[in-house]
Write a structure and sequence with these properties.
It is a single chain. The chain is an alpha/beta fold.
Amino acid sequence: MDPASGTDAQLDLLVEDGRIAALGEGLRGDRILDVVDCWILPGLLDLHAHLREPGFENKETLASGLEAAVRGGYTAVAAMPNTEPPADNPHQILGLVQQAAALGKARLLPVGTITRGRAGETLADMGALRRAGAVAVTDDGSPVASAEVFRRALQYAAQFGLVVAEHSEEPSLVGEGAMHEGAVSMRLGLPGIPAAAETVAVARNLLLAEATGGRLHLMHLSTGRAVEMVRQAKARGVRVTAEVTPHHLLLTAQAVEEWGYDPCTKVSPPLRSEPDRQFLLEGLLDGTIDCVATDHAPHAPEDKERDYLTAASGISGLETAFPLVLGELTGSRRFRELEVVALFTTRPAACWRLAGGRLEVGAPADVAVFDPRLEWKVEPARFASRGRNTPFAGRSLRGRFVCTLVGGRVVWKEGDRFGPLGAG
């Protein structure tokens, strides 16, 4: 597919010094790949992934997480800072960048913390984090409970052009909840998390962003009311962007019941109601929600394969996100294929003002090759990620990435599909 016109056509991509030198037909150069009947796409960009290193290498490492990323078509991944120790200082950020560069897989986009130790009290040195390479700040997984601390964070981050990304949940309303509060949780006898846990926090964060003029990014929205509030805030000129995950787009709380308390359906925030899911789809369609992010959260078996109340929350999603969402959104005939591609490329790049997401002359040659005809089944045992925790195991999908290039270099390809690679 020609990404510019959306039509089936021959497209030659000429790469020089790691960048796209020309796009068109009949270009001359050493042939690296001869791709037939596939889509040549900009590399996908994920604003929300947990790569777990340092401190939780039993769940994931940079090596396994970035390998999973390139297999899923991602050429850049924002790594959340809820590690041990957390990424609350420039030395930690620089170390992660250097480690990732040495691996030579997807590009790492380091995210620093809002507060030191993610304790929600003292602001981290955001200027130093920015200079070290941080692209945003968040205490992800630990919402900043103090409104005053969060207000100052928005003001402080704005001085350095940083986005403040927030996991918007009110901890006192989450409590010991394990799933969405509603009829299903009552039938199953599980403690519920009300929709208000999200909407109360979203309302506060939007009002503080409006008051300070800071740049706010709302992570993994899950409720219809939150979508409405973001829509209204954008209309008022609030500088806010928002993401949604594949699992919140495809699943509801009903899955917990239908799949017999399967811990792979336990996520944070929880899977919500069908009306909430429909609001999320509408929010994507009208631009209220800016992009899709995986919230890739791999876990070791001992953390996930437990009773529902004590199982860890999260889904391993880098290797399945794009085909899942593509099938859901185009199958409903509400989205065109190129609109889905934008949700993973240009739109996340615009959220945080990042480079990439486009195939254009002069841009880094970060390219993903997608075969829309390939039919396959989700088999967690074959994941590159150490996390095999997915509720989509066994699901049949159509379309799969077969090759990924970062900086013009092939970092992954499926088997011997393309034969020997040249050095062009």
